[in-house]
Amino acid sequence: MEVKEPTAVSTDGSTTTTTASLQPSRKDSSQTLQAIQDVAFGSIAGIFGKVIEYPFDTVKVRLQSQPANAPPVYTGPLDCFRQAIRHDGVVRGLYRGISAPLAGAAIETSSLFFSYRLAQDALRATIYRSDDGASLPMGALSISGAASGAFTSLLLTPIELVKCKMQVPLEASATSSVRLPGAVTIIGSIFRQQGFLGFWHGQLGTLIRETGGSAAWFGSFEGVSLAFRRMRAKAHPSAESSGPLPIYQQLLAGATAGMSYNFVFYPADTIKSRMQTEDVQQKLGAAGKRATFWETGKVLWRDQGLKGMYRGCGITVGRAAPSSAIIFTIYEGLKEWFG
Question: CA–CA separation, 192 vs 287, rounded Å?
Fold first, then answer.
C-alpha cells in the first residue's frame, strides 16, 4: 500500500507537501548500504587473503610453539615446510584446520573494515567536526584502526585458539599414525576443560596485537596511498586526486600495511600462540595451571631472549605482504565496482 506524504496548509489556503516521517532518510540508507558493503567485500577479500597466507601461517605457529627448554624441532621455516609435507602431505600438513580460519578471515576482515568506518564516523561526529567532509588526519585514522582492532580481537580469539591447536602437531603424530582431532573435537575439549570463557584464552595477546597492529595496518595503507595521490597531483595537477589508485599502487600500499601490522607487535602474537598450544604440546597435565600472558612471556624471554620472541617473524612478514596486498586491492576494487 502506498504511503501518502502528509500535506500542510499555508496561510493563503494553498497546500504544500512535506517529507513523510516514516520514510527512512537518505543518510540512513547510505549508512546501511555501506555497512553491507563493508561486511560483504571484507569477507570476500579476507577469504582470498587467507588461502594465500595459510601455509605460511601454519609454519609460523609451529615455529612459535617449539618447546622453550629443549632443542628446536625445526631449524627454520624451510625445514618446517619440509617436515610438514613429508609427514602429512601438502594439504593435511599445510592446510589442516583451514575451515575455521576461513570463517575467521571473513569475520576478521569484514569486522575490521566495518568498525574502522564506524570509528571514523564517531570521530567526525565528535572531535573532528567538519561541514565540508574533509579527510581525517593520519593520527585520527590510526586511532580508528586501533579501535577497529580492539573490537575485532574479541571475535578473533576463539577462532585463533582452535586454529592454533589444529596447526600444531601432537607429540606422537610424527612417529605414529595418531588420528588428529578435528575442529569440533577441539571445541568440545576447550568447553569441557575451561568452560565458555576458555575460548578467550590468550585474549590479551590478541588484543595487543590487533589494537597496535590494526593501527599500523590502516595507518600504513592510508599513508602510502596518500603519498601516491600527492605524487599524482604533483605530476598531473589537473587530474582528480580522490580517484582510485592504479592496481600496482594499491598492491604496494597493501603490502606495506601487511608488513607493518605483523612486525611491530609480533612478540605479543608469539606469546599468544604458546599459550594457546601449551596443552597440545603436552606442557601441562589435564589439571595443570595455565600460565598467564605475562608468565608465558617471562619464561620465553628467559629461555630464548629476543630471538625467541621473534621466532618465525621473517616468514610471517613475508607472507603478510602478498596477503594484505590482495585484501586491500580486492576490497577497494569491489567498492569501486559496486559503489
Answer: 12
Q: Kind and range of the H or E element at 9? A: strand 7-9
| Range ranked top by mean pLDDT from 61-70, 131-140, 278-287 | 131-140
CA–CA separation, 315 and 227 (whole Å): 27
Residue 5 cell numbers, joined: 506524504
CB contact at 8 A, 35 and 115: no
What count of Cα atoms within 13 Å lies in the side-chain half-sphere of residue 310? 10
String of b and e for 139-177 (b: at least 16 CB within 10 Å)?
A: ebbbbbbbbbbbbbbebbbbbbbbbbbbbbbeeeeeeee
User: Is 235 exposed, middle or buried (CB count within 10 Å of its CB: 0-12, 13-18, 19+)?
Assistant: exposed
Whether pLDDT at 172 is above 60: no
- pTM beyond 0.90: no
The type of residue at 74 is Y
- What is the Cα–Cα distance from 161 to 159, expressed in whole angstroms? 5
SS (H, E, C) 54-111: HHHHHHHHHHHCCCCCCCCCCCCHHHHHHHHHHHHHHHHHHCCCCHHHHHHHHHHHHH
Helix (H) / strand (E) element for 202: namely: none
Euclidean distance between the first and the last CA atom of the chain, given in angstroms as a whole number: 30
Examine the pLDDT at 246 and tell me if it is beyond 70. Answer: yes
Return the sign of the alpha-carbon dihedral for residues 26, 31, 32, 33.
positive
Check if the beta carbon of residue 185 is closer than 8 Å to that of residue 217.
no
Query: For residue 119, with 0-12 CB atoms within 10 Å meaning exposed, 13-18 middle and 19 or more buried, which class applies?
Result: buried
